[in-house]
Amino acid sequence: MEHDFSWVYLLFFFLIPLASMIPRMLRKRRKNQVASQTIQKERKKVQTNHNYSTKSHNMDSTEVSKKMLVLGNLVRDSNTFEKIQKNTTLGNKELDSILGDLEENNMLKVHQKKGLLGIKIELYPTDKGIQKYRTYFER
Asked: What burial class does residue 99 get, using C-beta atoms within 10 Å of its C-beta: 0-12 exposed, 13-18 middle, 19+ buried?
């Protein structure tokens, strides 16, 4: 009676790559949890901060808080329309108008890059935008 232990080789074949993938997956999961916690904290700050007054525009506080939410995502390296939309859960038209306003006020730079799949549009905050975002939350 012979015992066939060939399954051991198969086990090692799968365990070695799995052992290197598990720590990476755990790090990525922790990073995503931390990012979602900071976004939730920002949303709470934006919702509670209704006393913001603008000198150049006469807007209600929800528009300003949505702009600051979008600007905060730009500051934290969400540099594509899809990432910002996913993080803020704003609609296409609303997010497009907010990004247009930020670009008009020189708080946002738009970069177009050519890639293999076509033109890629990336959004970056300017120094003015970063400073406006920081002063808004220092109160």
From this structure: buried
Interval 78-108: pLDDT, tens: 788 888 888 888 888 888 888 888 889 888 8
Q: Which CATH class name applies to 6-49+60-138?
A: mainly alpha
- The predicted model scores a pTM of 0.55
For the stretch 23-63, pLDDT in tens is 888 888 888 787 777 777 776 666 665 444 434 444 456 77
Place of tokens 């150049």: 56
Domain extent listing, the chain:
6-49+60-138
Q: How many other CB atoms sit within 10 Å of the CB of residue 109?
A: 14
CB within 8 Å of 131: residues ≥ 6 apart: none
Distance CA 132, CA 135 (A): 5
